[in-house]
Amino acid sequence: xxxxxxxxVTRRHATGRGVEDISLSVRAGxxxxxxxxxxxxxxxxxxxxxxxxxxDRGHLSVLDAPSYPRPPRLRQRCGVSLDASAHWERxxxxxxxxxxxxxxxxxxxxxxxxxxxxxxxADLLAQADDPVASYSFGMRRKLSLIESxxxxxxVLILDEPSAGVDAPFLERLTQSICERGHRGKTTWIxxxxxxxxxxxxxxxxxxxNGRIEARGRVPELTASIGARNRVEITLEQDDWDQxxxxxxxxxxxxxxxxxxxxxxxxxxxxxxxxxxxxxxxxRVRTMEIHAVTLREALAQRAGRQEVES
Length: 309
Known about the structure:
Blueprint: E1 2-12, E2 18-27, E3 31-35, H1 42-49, E4 57-62, E5 65-66, H2 72-75, E6 78-81, H3 93-103, H4 111-121, H5 137-149, E7 155-159, H6 167-182, E8 186-190, H7 194-200, E9 203-208, E10 211-217, H8 218-224, E11 228-235, E12 249-255, E13 258-264, H9 269-279, E14 284-290, H10 294-308
């Protein structure tokens, strides 16, 4: 069952930026990562899913109801943390968290334990009773994120959660999101860190100029944007200078007994290269395959677009 459904959704700003003709669905238990460069439409689309803005046209539903205006009965089933934190500066972190928990309908006697557990996960327990005015940017971001998690929402919507927070907290957030997925809960994440999203999201979409450029599970997304792997081969002899004429090879460099190959993401191609070398009297000592990461794939794509332009 899909908890988030977008059909031909368009939202344009006065600057001309925004999103156009977006169609996607996010099923229960999925974590969707939304990637794209600055200005690609990530935040615009996230605000639409969060129910903060209305589409100019198209249909967008969350939890089987229109995303905007979100019915009051569904607000408690959603958790939202945007890229800008908003808190009562004079109140403590614990008081701010308590306010959000009560707004989401949580009550004693378990509320105190739930808050302490989240504050501990964010490494904020020692500063929980300090005013938020004394918090650093990263502390504020972590407080905002646990505020969105305090009521264990069916749909969690996060915009740039990796910005400004420490690596240990991000790892704990990854574990929490994966555990949510096992329980059938859905998470939406718009972020600029492809490495973190690759570890956290089950599926991903790539936005470019307000449109979906590619989509799928993370390995599928990497393959769909033309990512290229690298293979390192060491030979027994040190005078190799032949190059195979095989489809899918983009670069083939020889230096001494070392060969570096850049090739398409084809699981059969490395074996074909080895077979070709052996057939031409080469003696292979070692071979290492370096699969491209999502970050590298996006960098390769950006480089190709720059060359083409």
